[in-house]
Amino acid sequence: MVIGPMILATGMYKLQFWVPESRSYHGELIGNGQTRAQIGVQAEEDRWQVLVTAPGECAVDCQQLVYLARQIQIALGRDASRASHALASARPLSAEYEAKLQREYPQLQRYPLDLATFTKGANDKEAPQLWIVDPHSNLVLRYDARVKGKDLLNDLRHLLKLSNIG
């Protein structure tokens, strides 16, 4: 009686028969144990983090991702204390943008980005990217500049719901 379902399940697994192809997340799943340090960001954070990396100039795409990271953290509502948002840039920011960050993004954490390490660890070495990082500094999901805020928010809420850490 027990052997029949086991054989059926094993056969379905081996033959990849009736295996769902959909996924419940929108970003690119990292899932290989890669850490924040392996993409050139030296930071200590014990909460979930929405991290923007800018290997080049922090231009329009980068600034939109920084804005999105802040909006996501605010949109978390009661879970906002479980996450933070940060910017890691390889180049100095313009004085104008630096002043804007000081004024409008007081909780934004800023880190230097080691470009040599970043180019070894990241897929897209030129464009700004947004990452969800867990409290153990593991990279969980990666997004490019075309990410929709609602998709990112849904992914982060799902991770926070399933997680007992951070």
How would you portray this structure in words?
- The chain has one domain: Glutaredoxin, CATH 3.40.30.10.
- It has 5 helices and 6 strands, in the order H-E-E-H-E-H-E-H-E-E-H.
- It has a 6-stranded mixed beta sheet with strand order 1-6-5-2-3-4.
- Helix 3 links the parallel strand 3 and strand 4.
- Helix 2 packs across helix 5.
- The N and C termini lie far apart (44 Å).
- The mean pLDDT is 91.
Task: Report, as a whole number of angstroms, the end-to-end distance.
Answer: 44 Å
Helix percent band = 25-40%
Number of domains: 1
Low-pLDDT residue intervals, each spanning 5 or more residues: none
- Mean of the pLDDT scores? 91
Principal-axes geometry comes out as elongated
Oligomer: single chain
**Which class of secondary structure composition applies to the elements?**
alpha/beta
Order of strands across the main sheet: 1-6-5-2-3-4
The tally of helices reads: 5
The count of strands amounts to 6
Tell me the radius of gyration: 19 Å
CATH topology: Glutaredoxin
- At the first level of CATH, the class is Alpha Beta
Strand content: 15-25%
What is the name of the CATH superfamily? Glutaredoxin
CATH architecture call: 3-Layer(aba) Sandwich
Order of helices and strands: HEEHEHEHEEH
Give the biggest sheet.
Answer: 6 strands, mixed
